[in-house]
Each structure stands twice: as C-alpha cells, then as structure tokens.
Amino acid sequence: MSNEESRAPIKNRSQDSKTKTVRDIGEFGLISRIAKRSGKADASVLTGIGDDAAVISTREYGAMLVTTDSLVEDIHFRRYHPPEALGWKALCVNISDIAAMGGIPRYYLLSLSLPSDLSLDYLDQFCLGMDGAAERYGLSLIGGDTTSSDKIYISLTVLGGASGRVLLRNGARPGDAIFVTGTLGDSALGLKIMEELGIGNLEAGAKSDDPQVATRNQLISRHLRPTPRVDEGMLLAKSGMVTSMIDISDGLLADLGHICEESKVGAMVSVEKIPLSKGFEDVSERYGGIDLALSGGEDYELLFTVRGEHVATFFDGIKGMKCTRVGEIVEGNEIELGENGVRRIPEKRGFEHFKG
Ligand code: ADP
Ligand code: MG
What we know:
Elements: H1 16-19, H2 22-36, E1 45-47, E2 55-56, E3 64-72, H3 83-99, E4 103-114, H4 120-137, E5 140-148, E6 153-162, E7 177-181, H5 186-205, H6 211-224, H7 230-239, E8 242-247, H8 252-263, E9 266-270, H9 278-283, H10 291-295, E10 302-306, H11 311-317, E11 323-330, E12 335-339, E13 342-344
Parallel strand pairs: 4-5, 9-12
Antiparallel strand pairs: 1-2, 3-6, 4-6, 7-10, 7-11, 8-10, 9-11, 12-13
The structure holds adenosine-5'-diphosphate (ADP) and magnesium ion (MG).
Adenosine-5'-diphosphate (ADP) is lined by residues 31, 34, 49-52, 110, 112, 141, 143-146.
C-alpha cells in the first residue's frame, strides 16, 4: 500500500505554485511533479512511472479487471469546481467501476491534457485529491500520458483484481429482487444546488454553521466527492448470492436498463421504496423531486440483483451493510414504476452523451 512519507507536503502550498503555470515546467516537469505527489507504488509494481510501460506482478489474482473513464471540462465539470475534489472524483468514478464487478482496485494510469496557462497550484490540488483517493482505496499510480490542449481532459485507467466471483450485468432472472446501496439522488441534487449558487457562495457557505447550509454542503459534497462502494462490492461478490451488478453512474433507471438489456429481462421498481437521504427529502422538491433519484445519475451506489428465494439468507451474509430492496426483475424488456398502486413506464431513463 502507499507510503505516507513518500508524499510531498503540498498541504503547505509553495508561493510560486500560485504564479507559475504548467508552461513553466513543461511536459517532463509535469510528469515528475505528478509522480512525486503520488504515494510510493507497492511491491507488486515491478517497474512504475519512467519506462515505456509499467510492469506489474499479477500473481495475487486469478483475473485482472481493467476499466477506463474520462472527465472533460464543461461536460463533466467546470473550472471553478475545487480541483482537489475533481482529483478525488476522477479516480473514484473509475474505482467504482471495479467495485461494480466486486473487484479490488489496485493500479491506475493517468492521461492528462492541460492548457499551458493552468496554474501549478491547480495541478497540485488536483494531485492531492487524486492521491487521497489512491491512498484511501489502496491504489498505486503506474503511468499515464501528458499533452497540452485547450481545455482540461482527464482520462483514467484503473486495474484491479477479482475478489471472489466477478459480478457481471447479465445474470438477472425474473423473480430476482433488486437492491441498491446507500441513498439515491443526492449527487444530482447537489449539482443543481451548486449550479444555482455559483462558486462565490459555495466557498462562503462552506464555513457556515447554519443547518440549511450544512444540508446543502452535504448534498454538494455527494456530487463532488463520491464514495465508491468497494467494500460493499467485495462483500457482495463473496456472498455468492448476487446474480448481476452495476454501479449507478447514469441514473437508477438507465443503469437498471443496462442490467435488463444484458440479462434480457424487465423490471418493476417501487418508487416509495427508493432510499433517500434526509437532506434529499428536505430540499429536493424545488429541484425536481424524486426524478433526481430515478434518473439523476452520479450516485456511484451499487445496483444488484439476488434470487428471490435467497433474499433471507443473503441478508444474514451481509450483516450491517446498508442496502434497500427497491423492486423485482420480471419477464419482458420494460422497466415499470409503481407508485401509490399506479404503474407507469418512465419517459426518460437517464443521461446519455450526444443526446443531452
Ligand atoms: P513515452 O514517450 O515512452 O510514451 P512518456 O514521455 O509519455 O513516455 O512518459 C514517460 C513516463 O511517464 C511513462 O512511464 C509514462 O507512463 C509516465 N507518465 C506520463 N504522463 C503521466 C501522467 N500524467 N501521470 C503519470 N505518469 C505519466
Ligand atoms: Mg507517452
């Protein structure tokens, strides 16, 4: 695992990082600055950053899991979002994909395209957030690529090992119960609140003791600093009772749609059963209400299915893990919503690039 002493003390920001930009240090200065700010790679990394390719020993695992995801400025984030949170999120959304297979995240590669006039302070804060996530979830940075560009493009590749059975999207069958971890909709609601406030108020609000502001900040933080469900994913893989799993990145209905397509089944979701946080219940009405939990996206909770007859045993095996049964898998290919005894087919499932 990572070694705290190897991390550069960038919490005390150096003066020149505020005035200098990435142009001042160039591509190779940039690579070594990133490398210095990431924890020491663990012993399974035989050759890390600095050669043409990284060399890792895969002896620990029967199967390797590999995933990649990009974050693009003005599509996924704005320049005013705190760069430390952006670094955390960029890595965590990829970690979440490994969690969704029931895997253990282990290594990551970082491809960065940055504008030349970006301040070193922004870069350092970004690295601080990303390294924080790497340390928290036990990952080593093993390489990447660096180029200049007009906007910020972040592309991450995460490699992980299988912890038990690898959980795919295609094993759901009619009669299976549908579960989600945590609560849904907070991230989408946090984004709406953040966009309404703008950056000035965001920073001012962070220091307040006002309970309304605290709720607001909690929701915003669910958007900016998601928690990938790694331990939960591993526990679910080990339980041997999960038939399919996915992480909720596009929204509950959209991601349930992916399970349904791959498994060739339909689903029935009880709207009343969707787990909501207290903060969500308090303030969501004005911003779109329950639709945010159904199709808002970026929750990074796990959505999974369990055979109906195994549900009781399943709960015994996952003691203490917070998850909620929200529906059933059915025959067909539709997703239906049930609310107050009325059934309906949702108009929109969730976010899809190019369709806005
Ligand atoms: P090459 O020309 O052989 O592709 P590069 O000059 O692009 O090599 O990269 C040199 C080394 O630095 C490689 O080990 C590469 O993986 C690593 N590297 C490049 N960019 C990054 C980055 N943004 N983060 C981490 N490692 C990086
Ligand atoms: Mg290269």
